[in-house]
Amino acid sequence: MAAESRRLFIGPRLRRIRRELGLTQAQMAADMEVSASYITLIERNQRPLPADLLLRLAETYTLDLSVFSSGENETFAQLEAALVDPIFSELSVGREDVRDLLSANPAMGEAVAALYQSYRASQSAVMEARAAGGSSPADPLEEAREFIAAAHNYFPALDEAGEETARALGAAGGSGPAGRAGPSGGGLMEALSERFKKRHALTLRILPADIMVGAYRRHDRHRAQIAISEALDQASRVFQAVLQLILLEQGKALDDTVNAAAFDSDAGRRLARAALANYAAGAVIFPYERFHASLGDLKYDIEAISRRFGASFEQVCHRLTTMQRPDRSGIPFFFLRIDAAGNVSKRFSAGVFPFARYGGSCPLWNIHEAFRTPHKIISQTVQLPDGETYFSLARTVHGGEAGFGAPKAERAVALGCEIKHARQLIYAEGLDFETAAPTPIGVTCRLCPRPGCAARAHPPLERRLIIDEHRRMATPFSFAFD
């Protein structure tokens, strides 16, 4: 019986890993020196995965053995979280039932978890549509954001193409200390200039802002040149030059990726393609292997990483949300950028944080405090109403042109992760997560059920308001829980 309990049935997880590696069953079978039908049986959970084959898989594809258990643990956590939903309140379903389901049919467990996540997303969309005043036409920006979120902000083909381009430019470096040798900043601009000239017969020029007439970058086909505004700092100049190179050289890859999804509007598709181009540019400036090695070297010190790659604080934060390669994954981060009024202009997540589609963020989240201490990184432990706890960092960033009197935009960014990953960050050194209580926050006021919040701006959509003119409570709204 003990031997039976150790048998490893992880078919769905193996299938997912195989697909992420871009292999057919026949190709994996050839690598493992087994028959394709045997791989099929394992993926259908009709055969267990033997220990020797597990070790061979890990060695052949350079996989961490933990990847074969993380999927089941994630599904178990999702199903367990679903059980606390009121729709299951009259059913006597417990943890053992979840274990039985995952043991007997893990694929069905994943399907139930995905169905519940879809249900919650639909419920949130309905409530937020009510908050926005009813139904509305397709929102191109939300379409693009949902496209990125569906992929957990990870596009392996673009990462691989980015590393290849970085190697050609001499920017990929290596792993460990040698990984610091790749050019950045001015050196990378020189390499880019040479590539534009040799491959595309284009001249890369830095031009005064008045000649650019408000543009940061312009592909001037008549003069056969790529013009970048000198009003940009060095990191932004490099990014704009790389972005233009991506548009010239990876157009088909961008089209193939975005055309594989369905969009309700052409504007949504075009915005998604633009987001992919920005992603691909980041993959060139921060080649995956070299960047991943730096995360361990520097313990996710964002400012130190910025200096190593000659990039901005915000550019590094963007790249941190994309590190999901199966055999070289980083911490799954989420990212948010707001202005002083609380308007959200960017948000990315590796599938770990439930952003609201509309409305501002919680006023108790310290991203709003960052405006009081410009350019200083502040940290905070926060907890959502569902009990999930996160560690977040916040800091202001500046956008706009350089020079006296030039228009500038001050924004704040937040980068966060689940609390279980926090100890890997240099920012968590010396913090006591065991005894210090996290700050209770919500996704946004209209979706937050927390009572007694003095910072609340709107009543929750799922609760019935209680209006009593003879009593004034400390909180702005009173509501029932029936």
Walk me through what this model shows.
This protein has 482 residues and is α+β, with helices and mostly antiparallel strands. Among the domains are: 2-125, Orthogonal Bundle (434 Repressor (Amino-terminal Domain)); 140-311, no CATH class. The chain is built from 18 helices and 11 strands. It has helices at residues 2-5, 11-20, 25-32, 36-43, 51-60, 67-83, 95-104, 106-131, 140-150, 156-169, 186-200, 209-212, 234-249, 251-259, 266-285, 288-298, 302-309, 313-320, and strands at 203-207, 217-220, 225-229, 334-339, 344-349, 378-383, 389-400, 408-418, 439-440, 465-466, 478-479. The strands form 3 sheets. Strands 5-4-8-7-6-9 form a 6-stranded mixed β-sheet. A 3-stranded mixed β-sheet has the order 1-3-2. A two-stranded antiparallel sheet has the order 10-11. Strand 2 and strand 3 form a beta hairpin. The chain starts with a helix and ends with a strand.
Instruction: Order the strands across the largest sheet as they lie in space.
Output: 5-4-8-7-6-9
N-to-C CA distance: 48 Å
| Gross morphology | globular
Oligomer: single chain
- In DSSP terms (H or I, runs of 4 or more residues), the helix count works out at 18
- Unreliable segments of 5+ consecutive residues: 1-6, 174-181
Structure in a nutshell:
The model is unreliable at 1-6 and 174-181 (pLDDT under 50).
